[in-house]
Design goal:
heterodimer; A: about 300 residues; mainly alpha; Ferritin; two-stranded antiparallel sheet; 12 helices; B: alpha+beta; Ubiquitin-like (UB roll)
Chain lengths: ~300, ~100
């Protein structure tokens, strides 16, 4: 199939398997999209990792450790798909650590309190699940298959986050304040998370049916699902313009697209520190990789 | 080395492709596969197969040279014959073995 034939094929719901001949434009789009997803899973554990040693109870410490292990596992599965598309994992890591490829905006920000941990696992994961569910029908079938496992695991990560938030909201005033401050900090990045409101038909990732949903649709779905849950806990959303119109569409202050662009191109408040930690860890564990390969050879 | 992993969710169900993994040998492949697909007791059993051992067949339909509809359910259209047989009985033809002496 040439590019046009493939585009028509996937737009009618057709799926492609690994090993099928892929037009270069489609293969490149897949690598770009899936690699960024893998990068985000790998970098996304760092904000939470910072809290493993500071978790308030043993149960929370174990739950957080388990979540971090899940997310690293997702990165492994996803990089494997990228490898089959022609880009080795080592090359993905080289590009990530050199700042040549991107990871999701929300993982470039600091975590200030345990409230952030709850809000990340609840609302950041909620936003991510909405994007990830739109990948279950991905035109590239090997990616769609691993998304089933990933979405399943994300479903209890959200519950973990919601449980952390509920414990704090039913606690002291000081705890409630920590959650509210975290919501205030994360709201801007959350509203930017699904990307600019480019019409789905103009989005190459939608044209190739790599994702099955436009950016603004995803954001509306997020607001519809989670703003009521935020409000019912007595929390406020730091956007005076946020409201649901009679026709069901959410109105809000325009997200800061300049901030999004600056952050994902490597200028976020924690970008350098987090990449630095990854570089350090990769260097420190190199002997393990060498030993394993030597053992197997 | 690349390994393909198939998982069986419950006993008796078919194995389905779950994903692939890279591991230097079967010992590591099994350890990784257990971590990926068995950590929450979500699989009853796993098959771990070196990718090179899989033979991929596309368009497996064997087009018949002759009309071989006797091999398929839709090759048997009983409707018309059944109608004719029933009408025959209704018109007073006794079934064989009855009414003859």
């Amino acid at each position: 199939m040439n590019e046009d034939e493939l585009r028509a094929y996937v737009q009618e719901g057709g799926q492609v398997e690994s090993g099928d001949p892929l037009p270069e434009a489609y293969r490149k789009a897949l690598v770009k999209f899936i690699e960024m997803h893998g990068n985000s899973e790998l970098m996304g554990v760092l904000p939470e990792r910072e809290w493993i040693l500071r978790a308030p109870t043993l149960q929370r410490k174990l739950a957080l450790t388990s979540k971090v292990q899940d997310e690293v596992g997702h990165a492994q599965l996803i990089y494997r798909v990228v490898e089959d598309l022609g880009k080795p994992r080592e090359a993905c890591l080289d590009d990530l650590l050199a700042g040549r490829t991107k990871f999701h905006n929300v993982f470039h920000y600091p975590t200030k309190t345990w409230g952030d941990v709850g809000v990340i696992a609840w609302l950041v994961d909620a936003a991510a699940i909405i994007s990830q569910k739109a990948l279950l029908k991905c035109s590239y079938a090997p990616y769609a298959r691993i998304m089933k496992k990933i979405c399943w695991e994300e479903s209890f990560h959200i519950l973990h986050g919601r449980d952390v938030v509920l414990a704090m909201m039913t606690g002291t005033d000081e705890q409630r304040e920590l959650v509210q401050e975290a919501v205030n900090r994360w709201w801007g990045p959350l509203m930017q998370f699904h990307g600019n409101p480019i019409p789905a038909e103009d989005d190459p990732m939608y044209q190739w049916r790599i994702k099955s949903q436009g950016n603004e649709d995803a954001r509306q779905q997020f607001l519809d699902g989670y703003v009521p849950q935020i409000w019912e806990l007595g929390l406020t959303v730091p956007d005076p313009k946020l409201r649901k119109r009679d026709d069901g569409v959410w109105k809000f202050t325009e997200p800061d697209w300049d901030e999004l662009k600056s952050v994902v191109t490597g200028h976020g408040p924690q970008t350098e520190e987090r990449l630095g930690l990854r570089r350090y860890a990769r260097g420190e564990t190199e002997w393990v990789r060498r030993a394993l390969l030597a053992e197997a050879a | 080395m690349i390994w393909e992993v198939f998982r069986q969710e419950r006993e008796g169900q078919p194995f389905q492709h779950a994903g692939s993994l890279e591991a230097p040998d079967l010992v590591f492949a099994e350890a990784y596969a257990r971590e990926f697909y068995g950590r929450r007791d979500e699989s009853f059993a796993l098959w771990i197969v070196p990718r090179d051992a899989l033979h991929d067949v596309r368009e497996p339909y064997v087009a018949p040279v002759f009309d071989r509809d006797y091999r398929r359910v839709d090759g048997y259209s009983l409707k018309v014959k059944l109608k004719e047989a029933r009408e025959r009985v209704g018109a007073g033809h006794a079934p064989p073995g009855e009414g003859g002496a």
